[in-house]
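Supplementary Methods, section 5.1.

A reviewer requested that the exact input to the structure prediction be made available. We therefore reproduce it here, unchanged from the version used in the analyses.
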Amino acid sequence: MQSSTPLGKQLDCAQVWERWPDIVGDNYYHHCRPLGLRDNCLRIEVDSSVWMHRLSFRRWDIIKKVNQLVKKNLISDVFLVLTREDEA
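The structure derived from this sequence is encoded cell-by-cell as follows.
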C-alpha cells in the first residue's frame, strides 16, 4: 500500500498511535498523545506546560522514532498543543 494514498497515510498513522508508548517512553506516555498528522507535522496534545517543555527537548527523537517505525519520512516536525484545563 502506497503511503501517498489516503488509506496508506491512515495506516501509517495507525502504527504511530498503536506504538505511541514505545515512541515517547513510559515517563512521557501518560502526559501526551498524538492528535493528528497534517503536512508532515505530527500534532501532539500535552497535559501540562511542564511536560510540554520536557517534550520539546525530545522533538527530534520523536521524529526519528516515528520515521523509523513507518520506514519512511512520514513527519518532519512536531507541534505541541497544551490541553485546555476544562478538558483535562
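The chain is about 50% helix and 20% strand. These observations are discussed further in the main text.
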